[in-house]
Amino acid sequence: MEDASVCPRDPNAFCNVDEIDLYEQIETKIETLGPTKVESPYTNKGEIHFVKDDDRVLVHVSEKSIKRLIEEGKEPLSFEFAGPREWIYFDPSKVKAAIVTCGGLCPGINDVIRAIVMSLHFGYGVKTIFGIRYGLRGFIPKYGLPVMELTPSFVEKIHELGGTILGSSRGPQPIDVVVDTLERLNCSILFIIGGDGTFRAGAKIVDEIKKRGLKISVIAIPKTIDNDIYLVSKTFGFETAVEMACQAIRCAHTEAVGAPNCIGLVKVMGRHSGFIAAAATAALREVNFCLIPESDFDLEGENGLLNALRKRLLLRGHAVIVVAEGAGQKYVLGDKVEKDLSGNIKLGDIGIFLKERIKAYFDSLNMDCFIRYIDPSYIIRSVPANVDDRLYCANLGQNAVHAAMAGKTGMLVSLWNDRYVHIPLSSAIKKRKQLDLSSRLWLSVLESTGQSCLKN
């Protein structure tokens, strides 16, 4: 059996198991606030499958990899299994929890909020749940943002809405003031829903909590539409994003075949990772060129995009291009680099650049060319989650609650090898996940588009 480079439930793969070297050292131990001495309320809820801390999920699941490690006297890398514990750390009757959402919008945020509230209230009997407004700003007194009281009746229908009922924001805030507010609220648990930057802030919050000797659990739920968080097979909202991107691509294809020498050009989200572009391309099979940040491409020359487009139009009379927002930045970024409030480099607009550059190229050849440009970015990230993402969000939220009540901290809930696991924040922020150009997903893209003529 070969090494599993894909998630078992999905042969097209978004989890990149093979991005972790067999011998890579990754911290997998989860911090706890102390011994668990409180019997879980779930013991009175019928037959419950409780999980123990020594229940593990292997990182590499192939027989070949495990056998190789055992023969070399090495312990196979594994993650702690997520799920309800029979004994927990917190007394539910005395717990106050808070939820905060940070960074950009993503389908499914409200679903995660709802799942956390419902699980805390009905599963553990926690009555006080605070919603922190507009990201970490909500912790800072100078902004004057009151907390929201989250109850089952309040969150009952929020999963039908896009965005986040709590609001969100970007940018750093003073960590000591954040922890001051947690103390004033007498908060025992903080759930943070966000991406890489949010996790880095979360790790600092954990450090400040430990520095003060406090007993506050910090649990993260990975949120990024780009699917680029390390050690997370798939982030919530990604499937919805791909589905919405496919709708835009179908429209672009319809436009392209509806006029002579017409090009449908679609820009999708993906600052550093081209998972949305690649997955939508593989799903539709109507795309002729898929451009992603991980794969360099030339515009000019025999193997450049422009010449390939010319040949395509002469042969078929139409073409469809899907480009991730972070692709081709060498053409558009310029000398002056600006950053947003989160410290991310502000990208140049590759979509507009390609539209104008392609038009100029065909004009120079005195060849008719019509371009239909579609940028659905904000529509994609603002819609409610689809059914698959809703189920995923519910599981993430529930497992986050189980981890928090058991006194886990400084960790995120992840899906790995089709199992929910606990990942230390310190490990998840080591690097960014990118699409492996030797993966079956990218091979599927190349087979579908036939774009192997472009430089990689």
From TrEMBL:
Biological or metabolic pathway of the protein: Carbohydrate degradation; glycolysis; D-glyceraldehyde 3-phosphate and glycerone phosphate from D-glucose: step 3/4
Catalysed transformations (reactions): beta-D-fructose 6-phosphate + ATP = beta-D-fructose 1,6-bisphosphate + ADP + H(+); beta-D-fructose 6-phosphate + diphosphate = beta-D-fructose 1,6-bisphosphate + phosphate + H(+)
Site (Important for substrate specificity): 197
Gene: pfkA
Residues that hold ATP according to the record: 104, 170-171, 195-198
Source domain of life: Bacteria
UniProt GO BP: fructose 6-phosphate metabolic process
Active site annotation, chain numbering: 226
Protein name as it appears in the record: ATP-dependent 6-phosphofructokinase
Phosphofructokinase domain ranges (all copies): 97-403
Complex formation: Homodimer.
